[in-house]
UniProtKB/TrEMBL annotation, chain A:
Function: Part of the ABC transporter complex CysAWTP (TC 3.A.1.6.1) involved in sulfate/thiosulfate import. Probably responsible for the translocation of the substrate across the membrane.
InterPro entries referenced in this protein's UniProt entry, alphabetically: CysW_permease (IPR011866), MetI-like (IPR000515), MetI-like_sf (IPR035906), Sulph_transpt2 (IPR005667)
Alphabetized UniProt keyword annotations: Cell inner membrane, Cell membrane, Membrane, Sulfate transport, Transmembrane, Transmembrane helix, Transport
Presence of the UniProt keyword Hydrolase in the record: no
GO molecular function: ABC-type sulfate transporter activity
Principal localisation: membrane
Membrane topology field: Multi-pass membrane protein
Protein name from the UniProt record: Sulfate transport system permease protein CysW
Automatic annotation (TrEMBL), chain B:
Signal sequence residues: none
Cited SUPFAM superfamilies: MOP-like (SSF50331), P-loop containing nucleoside triphosphate hydrolases (SSF52540)
GO terms, molecular function: ABC-type sulfate transporter activity; ATP binding; ATP hydrolysis activity
Name this protein carries in UniProt: Sulfate transport system ATP-binding protein
Gene3D superfamilies (UniProt xref): P-loop containing nucleotide triphosphate hydrolases (3.40.50.300)
InterPro entries reported for this sequence: AAA+_ATPase (IPR003593), ABC_SmlMolc_Importer (IPR050093), ABC_transporter-like_ATP-bd (IPR003439), ABC_transporter-like_CS (IPR017871), Mo/tungstate-bd_C_term_dom (IPR008995), P-loop_NTPase (IPR027417), Sulph_transpt1 (IPR005666), TOBE-like (IPR024765)
Entry keywords, A to Z: ATP-binding, Cell membrane, Membrane, Nucleotide-binding, Sulfate transport, Translocase, Transport
Domain ABC transporter: 3-237
Source organism: Pseudomonas flexibilis
Gene Ontology cellular component terms for the protein in this record: ATP-binding cassette (ABC) transporter complex
Classification via PROSITE patterns: ABC_TRANSPORTER_1, ABC_TRANSPORTER_2
Amino acid sequence: MSSLSVAAPLPTVARQAPKQWGRLTLIGAAWSVFAFFLLLPLVIVLTEALQAGVGTFFSAIFEPDALAALRLTLLAVAISVPLNVLFGVAAAWCVSKYEFRGKSILVTLIDLPFSVSPVIAGLVYVLLFGAQGLFGEWLLEHDIQIIFAVPGIVLATLFVTVPFVARELIPLMQEQGTQEEEAARLLGASGWQMFWHVTVPNIRWGLIYGVVLCTARAMGEFGAVSVVSGHIRGLTNTLPLHVEILYNEYNHVAAFSVASLLLALALVILLLKQWSESRINRLRHSGAEE
Amino acid sequence: MSIEVRNVNKQFGAFRALNDINLDIHSGELVALLGPSGCGKTTLLRIIAGLETPDSGSIVFHGEDVSTRDVRDRNVGFVFQHYALFRHMTIFDNVAFGLRMKPKSERPDEATIARRVKELLEMVQLDWLGDRYPEQLSGGQRQRIALARALAVEPKILLLDEPFGALDAKVRKELRRWLARLHEEINLTSVFVTHDQEEAMEVADRIVVMNKGVIEQIGSPAEVYEHPANPFVYHFLGDANRLYMGEEHHILFRPHEISLSRNAADEHRPAEVRDIRPLGAITRVTLKVDGQEEPIEAEVAKDDASLVDLARGQTLYFKPKAGVPAHLS
C-alpha cells in the first residue's frame, strides 16, 4: 500500500518533464525508501530468528505457549472474520440498495474503528465488561468472564476489523446498482436465489479481498487485544502479544522466531490479496467497457 | 392478457411522479408510453411490473387485481434500457435463468431447458453466441439477448423500458422494426416506454402521451398526430412552426404543411431564405419572416419546383396549408 502511494505520482511527473534522470531519481528514491523501511526489517526479523540455528528457531515456534498463542490467534480470526463478512455484506446491501435516513451516518460509523486508536477500543471494553465496569457486577453474578479471557479478545478483534469487508463492498455494490437483482426477481427468482445466483457472484472478488484484509488485521492486532487480554501465558496471549512478552524477557531469538511465523502468515495473505485485487481490476475494467 | 391501471398515484418525496393515472391496454396490443424525461412513464411501467408500489390505486391483469402480488408472481417479461444481463453468466445461462429458477415441481429438465434456450436464441438470431459473456456482445446483441431472456418464462405481458435508448440510430431502427414483427408473431401484450415520438409512431398500435405525471392523450399514431388534444401533444409529436398573424394571434403548423413559391402568389407571404439543408428525400429551408424573431422551417420534397437554383438571401413566398390547428394556440 505505502509503496503504491510513493510510486503513484511518477507517471505525471515523467510526462511533464520527460528527462530520464528525473524519472530515475524518483524511482530510485521510492525503491530505497521501500527497501529501508519495509524490506530491511523483514530481513532483520529472519536473520535474528535464525541467529542461533534452525533448531532453536523451531523449538521457539513449537514451544507450548507459542502454539497456544497461535491457536488463540487463529480462533480470534475464525470467529471475527465470518462475523465481519456477515455484517459487511448486510451493511453494504443496506447502503447500496436502499434509501433511508441516516445512511451517511451509518457509513461514517462503519469507518469509526479506522480513526479510533485500538487502545481506546480496548479500554472501552474494559470499562463496559471489566470487574469495575458497567456490566461488571452482572457478569460476575452470572460467572461470565469477558475481560482477560477469550471473549474479550474476540470482541476487541471484531471492533478493529469491522470496516474491512463493508468498506470494500459498498462502492462495488453501489457501482453495480440493483438492475440485475430486479431482473432476477422478474424472472421468478426468490430472495435467496437472487442473492446466491446474482449478488454473490457479482461481489465475489471484492468479498475475498475484504476477507483477506480483515484476516490480516485480525491476526496482527496488538493494541486493543493487549488491553483486554491480561497477558496470561498459554491462555490469553495471541501471537503478537507473545512476541512482545518474549522480547521484554530479552529472549530475542524466540521473539523473532515467533515473529517470523506471523510474517509467513502475512506473506500468504499478501499473495491472496494481490490475486484477488487483480481479479477485481479485471472485472472493473470489463465493466467500464459497457 | 389485458392490463388495467386504476387511479394510480405515486409520489417521491415532494415530487409527484404519477397523478391519478387510468389506462386500459387491450390483450395483444402494442402500446407506447411516450413523454419527455421525468414525465412518469418509467415509473408507470415499473408499477405495472411490480418493481415499484403505487401510493394508491390498483393494477388489474385480465380482470384480476395483482396489486398485492410480488414481482416474481406477476409473470411479466421486462427489458431494461441498459439490458441488465447477468455479467458473470454466459449468454446461454442468462437465457436459461428464468427456467432454472422455477420451483422444483415446475422446473423442466436440463435437456428441455437447453432445447428451449436454443429456440429462443434462434428466434433472436444469435444462437452462435451461447457460450459468450455479455461484455463480449454489442449493445444491439445484448438487447436481443435481454429480450430472449425475458421471453424464456413465456410471459403474457412484455414490458420494455426505453429498449433502444442506448443504441445507435441505425441499430435502433432495425431493432424496432424487428420488435414490431416479433410482437405480431407471438401473442403478447406489450408496453414500451420511449421519449422518441418517431419510435412510438413507427412501432405502436396506440400511443399514450404523458407529461408531468398525467396522461395528455391516448390514441392511435394517426389520431395523436392529426388530432392532438392540446398544445403539449402537438409540440411533442413533431416540429412546429409558429407564425404570428398580428399582435397577439398566431397559428401553428408543421414544417411539411407548407406551400412554397418563387413568385408572389395568392395569400403567400414573403420571407428571406436563411438556410437550405438537403436531408435525403426532403429538403429543409429555413425562412426569416418580417415582424417575428422565430424562423419558419419548411420541409418539401427535394424535387420541389421552388428549390431549383435557390440560394441563401433570396426571397421565397410561403403559405401554411389547410389543416392549421389555429385553435391550439
